[in-house]
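[job 0412] stage=fold_complex status=start
inputs:
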Amino acid sequence: MQKRHESSLAWLDRKLVAGRTLGQVCDEVVTHLRTTFAHYHWVGIYMVEGDRLRLWSWDGPAATEHVDIPLDQGVCGFAASTGDLANVPDVSQDDRYLQCFLGTRSELVVPIRTQRRVYGEIDIDSDRLGAFSADDEAFLSSFCDRLGVLAEREGRVGHAPDRPRARSSRR
Ligand code: SME
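[job 0412] stage=fold_complex status=done
writing structure:
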């Protein structure tokens, strides 16, 4: 993991040590990620509420119309329902993709989860093809794991994923 990834995880740890809730930190989290990593052009946090994903926070050049996504739709629904990370290098080649922005070329969706439950996800769009590396995957998985612990501690219900925890599934 790169130094800037470690710094970002340390930033999150400092935020969480203050005892704040996920709802209280999510605005800062999306802004931190978008402004720290140049290829993260749009960053959102979706949380599982019943059988849907609701957009809690976002940062980027424009709002998305997809503020409420059923768990069986989109790359977002795939990641939340299976519990697997989805790294889509070319969104035009992925049938699951729900378009938000004309400029988006690649997308990374990382579940916020624990071993048994998925509570939400971080969704990142990039205007570059194949923008997201294995390093981005590892970093955001660690980042989201911390948020998953927080969500569990807060007693969120989340969703039982289709598959037990897998390390990584690049697609
Ligand atoms: N592209 C996502 C929808 C969310 S927007 O990217 C913000 C999807 O396919 O689920």
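[job 0412] summary: The mean pLDDT is 94.
[job 0412] exit 0
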